[in-house]
Amino acid sequence: MSALDTVGGTSGPEHPSKRRRVDDDSIDSTPRDGSPDPLQGHHLSIRRGRPQSHPGSRSPRASHLDGDDGGNQFRSPSPLSPRGSRPGSRESSRTARRARRYSRSGSGSPSVSRSHSQTPRSHRSRSHSSSSSASRSRSRSSSSSSNRSLGSQEQQTPRLSDAEPAPAPSTQRTHITPQYRRKLALRGHTAAISQVRISPDGRWIASASADGTARIWDAQTGEHLDTLVGHMAGVSCLAWAPDSNTLATGSDDKAIRLWERVTANPAHECGDGGRTPVANGGGRGGKLRTETRGGKTGRGPLLGHQNYVYCLAFSPKGNMLASGSYDEAVFLWDVRAGRLMRSLPAHSDPVSGIDFCRDGTLVVSCSTDGLIRVWDTSTGQCLRTLVHEDNPPVTNVCFSPNGRFILAFNLDNSIRLWDYVGGTVKKTYQGHSNKGYSIGGSFSLLAEEDQEAIDGNGADRGSQIQPFVASASEEGDIVLWDVKTKSVVQRISGAHKGVCFWVDVNGGIMVSAGQDRVINVFRQVSTLPNGRAKLQPHALESETPNLAAAADDELQRQIQEEAGSPLRHVKEELV
Amino acid sequence: MNLLLSDDYLLQDYPENITNTIRSGHSTCVRFNRKGDYLASGRVDGTVVIWDLDTMGVARKLRGHAKNITSLSWSRCGRYLLSACQGWTAILWDLQTGKRHREVRFRAPIYAAELHPWNHHQFAAALFEEQPMLVDITDPIDVKLTLPSVQKRANADADAATKEKQAKEDARHMTTAIVYMATGDHLLTGTSKGRLNIIDTRTREIIFSEKIAAGVVTTLRLTESGKVLLVNAQDRIIRTFHVPNLSVPDLDPDTIQLPLEHKFQDVVNRLSWNHVTFSATGEYVAASTYNNHELYIWERGHGSLVRMLEGPREEQGVIEWHPHKALLAACGLETGRINIWSVTSPQRWSALAPDFAEVEENVEYIEKEDEFDIHPQEEIQKRRLDAEDEDVDVVTIPKDHDDVESFRMPILFNLGESDSEEEFVNVSLGTLRRKSPGGEDVEAVKEEKAPAKKAAGTARARGKKK
Asked: Which chain A residues are within 8 Å of B20, Cβ to Cβ?
């Protein structure tokens, strides 16, 4: 809600009379492009049970606005809130939020397997612990049984890619267009893959899976390099340190582990989460010291979260790690010492996404409570809260490459680009489907001049750099938008069977992962300076839906084959 | 980037109270790097510790000196750190590897060694009972050039006895403080007799000399711009001077003037000052006091005392002001802790709830014409999306400050291992305290002996013998 700026002075002409209309916003926004067809949304809402489609579920927040007569004035564009009245109204807003949560659970839909199917929820010791709704669906599971159930769900999910509109013709004014072609399909994970990320130097791919492991792959060859075993439950998230030599993984076992990429060993010799001082008295004798260290703490994980760790981000210097958890807190860790530096009581729902801005001074976190909060890293204070007036749950956030905007993935089939200083939505990207899962995406930068896509943030090139937004989609597609025109510039249909959970782009490489346990690696096809794609014929063909579908069937067949020998790593060259 | 969102610029620009206390061994001197994200501290045992100010944790430990560290100096890029110790050596550390880049030995303990502001292969050192040196370490064999402390006398016609007497006098005239001017072409030195000299680094001759203080000059500091000089002397007076611009092409040494700007002193208590520092912009001057627990902060514009910082019940030694924040670091003389003073901004509660705003007084609410109009959902949505026609730039990075510093300190995970002589306890968030402050932690094990550290007992004994 861009209340701040409207309050601040101008009356927000672009959103006239927004407050009241909230009531009427109960029906979830229908995407403008209309590409995800209603049938599918309906289908997913069975699994996910997002209450947006339910008029009543939207209302509590709105009714809070209504019911609080005076409060409405305080909150309205030209506020007169005397200081004294603030606590009360804040309180009421809090209750309203809680009410929303209850209503969400009341929508009766079974919640989802963000990593656990319904069972192990009892240790969520919050007041709303009974509501199973709070969990989100990234469909990862800690137990093999739920894996199986997941698989069956996957099969129940009808493939709807045919129902989509054809990929938008690239008629935009830009000179370069993303032309990503699938090059590799990496398999080896035995459960759905929740996140996949390319290392900052572009050479490695790391994937986190519900099978409790993370894997490291070579981005060029697709070779499986290492499997990081140590978590006791599904791995939800991972983050690369900026030097590409350390990897952090967060899991449903509430722990965060740091790994050396080269050795695949835990990075910390003595990380103990800062709970206990390092072995004391051991300094007198080296041998004793080593023993006490190893015995007591070992190469331990970062412990401190009281619930599933759901999102991770490294600071640009690599000295801090931010983590968000189902315990609704954001933690900032000192990476070197493995020590908890700061805990921010961030949200009133699980923290679903987190990111650092490029100079490391800001952390953004988001939650299914619909809030996006911007934090000052050094003081731990909240500097800004962003809420869309429809209050859709936010499942993922990231900063723009220059750190001036925040890209937020909402569960109303929209990705929004926020100007966090002004507190306004600058762009809304639609055309993918995202109603129930916390899917991810990223910015993609392509350089215009040198036909090679640039790696990382090579913003200093003289060439024009073209930004795109890439996101996964719940029907298994990957969609790329032009940042400025909001038009879909590439759609890779049927990249995954079932839900595609995560897309990460680093220059010319794009990786995606999904429910089908496969990681797809895409490469930007080099374009001529005048913008026409210099495509190999076979590359073009592989983009046609038929072939893609055929490849998918092939993938699916191999997945089923693999079910017998889950530890086999198959590398497949598609082109 | 957080400045876009915070009102911190409204806060006062000098520190208010202690926010952190960090400790690793017994620190005697501290220095911020130019960017202000790392703090180097030198310990009594010769170890140099690099602190990460983001995490308030140790980022690196550099072992190589055997004696008390007396001065630290960062290179502009932040990758190299020059440390000087009482044990006659100065080491230029490469923080990428944590190894010594160069080591230079002198024939006397070092008061201060200062890196050239642009070239990390050149530095100047003020030595104890020796003449200062200009050292060039570009080549594998370092070139040491002696600098004068006294201007050449223009008395060719004096008799031999006078000359001898003067020579004797001059030999007792020592340089006690040395600092490069902003361009690096000239050095400012303070002497044991209260003189301030300007030395041309090419000719290595004093081009200007003036008696500015009645006692030994102990500290010389320049602002970031290099236009104002801060002098601490043993005559209990802190002075600031305007530094002349010496980079004009036809510089006549006779026209150089060094006008005095302010004198800061405590005339009531007759306090003497341990160490002085400029604030980030040079707007304030801070000093630690001898035999007293307080830090004094003066405002330079009016020359008035603005604040006396109460610290722990401990005399503070070296103090340093953060290069761009209102943050002061000072070393406690007794405990060797580094105390950090800064400002804490209050949480703005309206930031937590975007539908609230903090207003100073009641504001009449005027309903807008279409405030309660009911529009169909689709229309709202469409209007909203159509309004998003602004051009956004998600790529361009504003070039407001220099990002030249591309050096990134490696993140070490084995610091716990090297920290083994200290037991840290979490006192509060972001604060570390040693568990047993009285504990002995002399550690003279050098780098190459690191593998032998497993036998810490023997190494320790060896260290003590030194």
From this structure: none
